Amino acid sequence: MCTFSSISLIFLLAIFKFDGLHSADTTIWGPGLDPLIVLPARYFYVQYDQEKFNIADFNVLISGKTKNGNNCRVWTNILDRKDASFIVRYKLYEICYEFRILVENKKTLKKYWNYFDQGPIYPDECDCSKVSIDTWLSNTKCRTNIEQINNDLNQFKNVNFQTVFGKMAKFYSQHPHSTSVCHYVVKNNLIFRKCYGEYTGFKMFMDNLLLSLNRKVFLPDLEFFVNLGDWPLSSPKELFPLFSWCGSNYSVDIVMPTYDITESALENMGRVTLDMLSVQGNIEKPWSQKIEKGFWMGRDSSKHRLNLVELSKKNSDILNASITNFFFYKELKEKYGPGKKPISFFKFFDVLLQLLIILTI
Ligand SMILES: *[C@@H]1O[C@H](CO)[C@@H](O)[C@H](O)[C@H]1NC(C)=O
Ligand SMILES: *[C@@H]1O[C@H](CO)[C@@H](O)[C@H](O)[C@H]1NC(C)=O
């Protein structure tokens, strides 16, 4: 059981509780205030009294020196959330010393946050400073008690771990065209895997997560299976412990954050530009001005999506759903079309409610 509680904690890396500064007119909080917490992109929030200030009144400076005393390469990005708060995120490209985080008010010259650390402060890519998993969990202040993951894991109290992995390998290699799972072993902080199935490209997402972790943490020895598909695969009858990006009431897959969420954390301020932080800084409408409807847009990959479009045509006052490309149901284009031109992801958030329909054919 130890194996599974550790890994479940690891997956929750994106969820932080963090104490910052709370003053009468400004609050600052977030894991990026402590650069000893190594993240691909470090970030923190600044919230201010909008009666007194606006975002332009704040000066944010993040800097450091290299070993040779030159300025350290730090990319800082400010995201205005348009609700009297903004996100500061920054990415390091090299090891920095004399590291400084300054948040001050240009009007009042008050310094709200003035952090200094002699360093070294490490970039995420650096395979150079590892701490124990317990130290790391405690430093990052990850939430440890999450009902869904607790419930998912609680189903596996009576599993015989001596034999179950062998049975799973056998079972999941039976249908290579419809199932893709990987067996991961972490041993001495090295990562090994064997995958079963024809289409296992998505293993890169799990690999990247583990490789980011083992650069900064001594991972405990672990063994587990991951489902790479978009359909739960563990039945209550067999009770195979299987980590998945999806679940249902009729399966016992242990649901973890999906690959695009972990990818957007790992590639934040990098290859990925649509992520949980950037979206907050690119929303045009404040909450009070959002269109009070449900919104959905996407391709025709399931009948349920066509049904939603039909519902939307009948109830356009509460629902705006449309298909962009007809690929699977070309013959139904007349009825459910015409295909709409895709819009920017950020425009989705002009509308109050986002609908997700991810059933595949
Ligand atoms: C799944 O279970 C939850 C909680 O028991 C219940 O609220 C929900 O209606 C169920 N969904 C389906 C589709 O059966
Ligand atoms: C639905 O949303 C699209 C994309 O934003 C927009 O062009 C269209 O006018 C909306 N339709 C209705 C009925 O509001």
Automatic annotation (TrEMBL):
Cellular component aspect of the GO annotation: endoplasmic reticulum lumen
Single GO MF descriptor: glucosyltransferase activity
Sorted UniProt keywords: Signal
Leader peptide range in chain numbering: 1-23
Subcellular location: Endoplasmic reticulum lumen
Name of a matching Pfam family: Glyco_transf_90
Predominant subcellular localization, coarse grouping: endoplasmic reticulum
Glycosyl transferase CAP10 domain residues: 218-357
Keyword Cell wall biogenesis/degradation included in the entry's annotation: no
The keyword Signal belongs to this UniProt entry's keyword annotation: yes
Protein task: Protein O-glucosyltransferase. Catalyzes the reaction that attaches glucose through an O-glycosidic linkage to a conserved serine residue found in the consensus sequence C-X-S-X-[PA]-C in epidermal growth factor-like repeats. Regulates Notch signaling by glucosylating Notch in the ER, glucosylation is required for the correct folding and cleavage of Notch.
Name of the protein in question: Glycosyl transferase CAP10 domain-containing protein
Organism of provenance: Aphis gossypii (Cotton aphid)
